[in-house]
Automatic annotation (TrEMBL):
This is Binding-protein-dependent transport system inner membrane protein. The lineage of its organism: Archaea, Methanobacteriati, Methanobacteriota, Stenosarchaea group, Halobacteria. Its main location: membrane. Signal peptide: none annotated. Belongs to the binding-protein-dependent transport system permease family. The chain crosses the membrane at residues 12-32, 101-124, 136-159, 179-199, 237-263, 283-309. GO terms for biological process: transmembrane transport. It holds the Pfam family BPD_transp_1.
């Protein structure tokens, strides 16, 4: 019951944080220079048409009235209407959600096993050749920008080797084979930095645990080294790793904006980027709210996972 009360309290605490995020994003979008209607209609729109659009979307009203009206609609579950797509923002988010979640999910599926395996290997071979190689690979992965890696993959794999298509998206639920060929490079781009960071965190935590007294005791009792590494050291080294995994949701969401734009994936990241260019206020705020909710839920679930990993942690 203590854990349940803690989880409910943390989820309730998300609400004021989301309120602050919405407020900040709303003000920042309206502070951008330029007229979104003029951007949408072109350089010489008809004045009557422009006035009709401005009035229909309420852009001629004072900012505080637009803000309070948006909050009222948001409280009713209405994220607003996109004036670029002329469709509800919730429908756009629902349609674009799958590509983003698929790319993020596959990136985690690739990054986590590789990071954990390399981290444990590096800790077990501390200061040996294999450890030095994994540390160098980790440093290179963290230092490589997503956009540069994506462009290099397209340049080498697509234009020189002609192995994979450079852009596009097909749902894995429709055509798994074609989807796999289109997702390999985006997933590698997103997973590289995640793998490097998680590997370095796993290695550091494992090295610290392997120096603990209880590990020496376990070895003195003749427990096999593999069992010492996996059952004893790794379990106690999980807490820092779980923390990073939860917080890296924000990094993946930010990286998805770049990756989806470069590889022409019709996901939420690309929708957000386009909404900033077009100054489509409702879409930008709606996608930001969705991304923020995902991140905050990930943080709460990370905290809850602590109690299952380490029984000494109690939530009252």
């Amino acid at each position: 019951m203590g854990l349940l009360r803690y989880a409910l309290r943390r989820f309730v605490q998300i609400i004021p944080v989301l309120f602050g995020i919405v407020t900040l994003m709303f003000v920042m979008m309206h502070a951008l220079p330029g007229d979104p209607v003029r951007l949408y209609l072109g350089t010489e729109p008809g004045q009557e048409l422009a006035d009709d659009l401005i009035e229909s979307y309420g852009f001629d009203r004072p900012l505080h009235e637009q803000y309070f009206d948006y909050l009222v609609r948001l409280g009713q579950g209405d994220l607003g209407q996109s004036f670029v797509y002329n469709r509800p923002v919730s429908d756009l988010i629902w349609e674009r959600m799958e590509p983003t979640l698929v790319v993020m999910g596959l990136s985690y599926l690739v990054a986590l096993p590789m990071a954990i395996g390399l981290g444990i290997y590096g800790a077990a071979r501390h200061n040996e050749a294999g450890d030095h190689a994994s540390r160098f690979a980790g440093l290179a992965g963290i230092s490589t920008p997503n956009f540069w890696l994506a462009l290099m993959l397209i340049y080498v794999v697509t234009y020189h080797l002609e192995l994979l298509p450079a852009s596009g998206y097909t749902s894995p639920f429709i055509d798994p084979i074609e989807s796999l060929t289109l997702l390999i490079m985006p997933v590698i781009t997103l997973a590289t930095a995640q793998t490097a960071l998680l590997m370095r965190m796993t290695r550091s935590s494992m090295i610290e645990e392997l120096r603990a007294d209880y590990i020496e005791t376990a070895r003195a009792y003749g427990i096999p080294e593999r069992k010492v590494l996996i059952r004893h050291s790794f379990r106690n080294a999980l807490l820092p790793l779980v923390t990073i995994v939860g917080l890296q949701v924000s990094t993946l969401l930010g990286g998805s904006v770049i990756v989806e734009e470069i590889f022409a994936i019709p996901g939420l990241g690309r929708l957000f980027f386009d909404s900033l260019i077009d100054q489509d206020y409702s879409v930008a705020v709606g996608v930001t709210l969705f991304f923020s909710t995902l991140f905050l839920i990930g943080v709460v679930l990370t905290d809850i996972a602590y109690a299952y990993i380490d029984p000494r942690i109690k939530y009252d």
